[in-house]
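User: Please write out a complete single-protein record containing the residue sequence and its fold in token form, without commentary.

AI:
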Amino acid sequence: MTVTTYKWTIKRYHRAIEAGIFDDQPIELLRGDLIVMPPEREPHAYYNTESADYLRTLLGKRVKIRDAKPITLPNNSEPAPDVAIVKPLGEVYLEHHPYPEDIFWVIEFSKATLSKDLGEKKDIYAEAGIVEYWVVNLKTPQLKVFRDPKNGEYKTELTLTTGTISPLAFPDVSVRVERFILLKKTI
């Protein structure tokens, strides 16, 4: 017997959401598969909130910072990155979640989902043309930065533990790496 899985499209996924089918379960759509999102522990929530607030201070009204909100990608994916830094398009987002062309960069804070965030999600973001993707590794204090997507993969990868980095979209802004990484082994 052959096992076949059901692949969701964005359209069907949205209809199921509207019908309330997933109201009791946090999920995201990755390449047509429904992925249950694990519960968020305290360090993850803390760094997510603090980092988003820090970026709001640095970038002001130049961007909209979306915490754990979906983005819509062309590869039947609608992930909910921990932080998405997007164009401030106002009421446009009443009609649709940000598309790749609306996104400056996305950030994931990761411990339990580290292999997914550095594997499948990285690939999905690169395929969609997300210009910059950051993964904050909560297992070891480091920031992984992926840039320059070409042919479905990121061509540039940086691993940072200190110093500053300027996002590609905002070369005039210096982001302190230490504001993103877990400096104590408390998780």
Remarks:
- The radius of gyration is 16 Å.
- The chain has a mean pLDDT of 92.
- Strands lie at 27-30, 33-36, 64-67, 83-86, 103-110, 132-137, 142-150, 153-160, 164-165, 175-176.
- The chain is about 20% helix and 25% strand.
